[in-house]
């Protein structure tokens, strides 16, 4: 349960980073919503990986291995977020920020947590950890 709560805190920090950057790009730089959303998602993904690796799941595999796995899972995350944003902003009455929050919550709870826990940061018994290698 503690891991789940820590993952949700990490997700919240990454989501706030994502939302803030998206809003700044749309409102101050006049970048189109979908492009700003993708850029926010990229930044939030980097923040999420760093926090998850160092605090939530305490990375025990080499960083390159976890980064490659994370990039694979995160690519799906990006597609789901972009598609969800497109659908919500084109076929609903919600403002883009509300749409982004709804989509982020759905993708985060239904997709990200489980794949990160069971695939990205899962420790295989035959993997030498970075701590063991030193």
Which characteristics define this entry?
134 residues, mainly alpha, 0% strand, disordered C terminus
C-alpha geometry: elongated
User: Whole-Å distance between the termini?
Assistant: 30 Å
Q: Major β-sheet, in short?
A: none
Separate helix tally: 5
- The share of residues in extended strands comes to under 5%
- Rg over CA atoms, rounded to whole Å, is 16 Å
Q: What do the pLDDT scores average to?
A: 86
Q: Which bin fits the share of residues in helices? A: over 70%
Question: TL;DR of this structure?
Answer:
This protein is mainly α and 134 residues long.
Explain this structure:
- This protein is mainly alpha-helical and 134 residues long.
- It has helices at residues 2-27, 33-56, 63-91, 96-120, 130-133.
- The chain has one domain.
- The longest helix is centred in the middle third of the chain and has 29 residues, at 63-91.
- The model is unreliable at 128-134 (pLDDT under 50).
């Amino acid at each position: 349960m503690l891991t789940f709560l820590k993952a949700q805190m990490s997700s919240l920090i990454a989501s706030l980073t994502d939302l803030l950057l998206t809003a700044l790009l749309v409102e101050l730089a006049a970048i189109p919503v979908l492009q700003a959303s993708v850029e926010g998602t990229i930044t939030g993904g980097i923040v999420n990986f760093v926090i998850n690796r160092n605090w939530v799941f305490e990375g025990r595999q080499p960083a390159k291995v976890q980064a490659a796995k994370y990039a694979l899972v995160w690519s799906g995350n990006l597609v789901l977020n972009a598609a969800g944003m497109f659908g919500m902003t084109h076929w609903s009455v919600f403002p883009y920020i509300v749409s982004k929050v709804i989509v982020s919550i759905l993708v985060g709870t239904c997709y990200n947590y489980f794949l990160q826990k069971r695939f990205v940061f899962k420790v295989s018994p035959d993997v030498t950890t970075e701590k063991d290698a030193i």
